[in-house]
Amino acid sequence: MGNPTSEDVPKARVTTPREYIEECLQVHNELRTKHGSPPMAIKEEMCKIAQAWANHLTTIGKMEHSNTEGFGENIYWATNDPSARTAVEKWYSEIKDYNFASASDQPQKGTGHFTQVVWKESVELGVAKATGAKGTYVVAVYAPQGNYMGEFKDNVCSK
Q1: What fold, for 18-154?
Q2: Smallest Cα–Cα separation from 6: which of 45, 57, 63?
Q3: Contacts from 105-108 at CB under 8 Å and sequence distance 24+?
Q4: In this predicted model, what pLDDT tens digit does every residue of 73-120 receive, in sequence order?
Q5: What letters, b where the CB count within 10 A reaches 16 and e where it falls short, cover 102-140?
Q6: Which of 4, 26, 53, 99 is spaced 20 to 30 Å from 139 by Cα?
């Protein structure tokens, strides 16, 4: 697995307001508490990675994952300028499709954003947003990366 802060990962100067980043962290931690997951901490180098990808998305004008190895990633898009709470709660809303009763150690379709938000082993967070002609893109990157086969039972717990 790659190192998400290595020199070969694109980075950009963080232009996302600090209040936005802090709100995103706060909402993640509020939701993670419901699942017994430890609090996350902001990692500045990861915010630079998230900013570079958010900037790229505004350039190409569409949602697309970076596929950079070494960290998990959630992306949100809106035509307006969404609050950090809106973006994180949208990712978390996939909980409605997660079946805790039959949770195996395999991913469940349509719940990857939710499981990454609450993934116990992911304790570092980088967040950024960028606005372009087609809207605002919010990018969150997580380390260590979540959503590993065989590790769901240990990392995604019911409320």
Answers
A1: Pathogenesis-related Protein p14a (3.40.33)
A2: 45
A3: 105/149, 105/150, 105/151, 105/152, 105/153, 106/149, 106/152, 107/147, 107/149, 107/152
A4: 999 999 999 999 999 999 999 999 998 877 667 788 999 999 999 999
A5: ebeeeebeebbbbbbbbbbebbbbbbbbbeeeebbbbbb
A6: 99
Angle between the N-to-C axes of helices 18-33 and 84-92, in degrees from 0 to 180, rounded to the nearest 10:
30
In the chain, domain spans: 18-154
Q: If you average pLDDT over every residue of the chain, what do you get?
A: 92
Q: Which two tokens stand for residue 151?
A: 């590790």
Per-residue H/E/C for 51-112: HHHHHHHHHHCCCCCCCCCCCEEEEEEECCCCCHHHHHHHHHHHHHHCCCCCCCCCCCCCCH
Farthest-apart Cα atoms in the chain, separation: 44
